[in-house]
Amino acid sequence: MPANSSLDRASNLTDDADDLDCTPTHPLDLDCIHHLQTSLLDSEKAQRMAEFFSFLGDANRLRIIAALALKELCVHELAAIVQMSESAVSHQLRNLRAIRLVSYRKEGRKVFYRLKDNHVLNLYEAVAEHIDEKD
What CDD domains does this protein map onto (predicted)? Predict the structure, then answer.
């Protein structure tokens, strides 16, 4: 993909948006507007979701999630798979546990990590599928 193709696409979206204005203005369906306002995501939840998605904006964390989407793994295995130090992987896993994306279980002295639940797996799979879509 050429380096400026994203910029070109953004420019085209801006140009297209000018054509999508509600001109001439039309009367608003106030009942519909009120219904949508009461159904809208509240500000506090929106903020928490923004922080959650911001946290996923780290390539290393996403690679760890991708590995855990395939199989439950220990830190040693994860470090080898994602080619990071065990210390760095442990740090990222602590962060992922803090936002409830991964959980763990102990087996003797070994600790195995897995995605917390199907919501996390579904989110990962949906985003990966979206990224792979062709325009």
Answer: HTH_ARSR (cd00090)
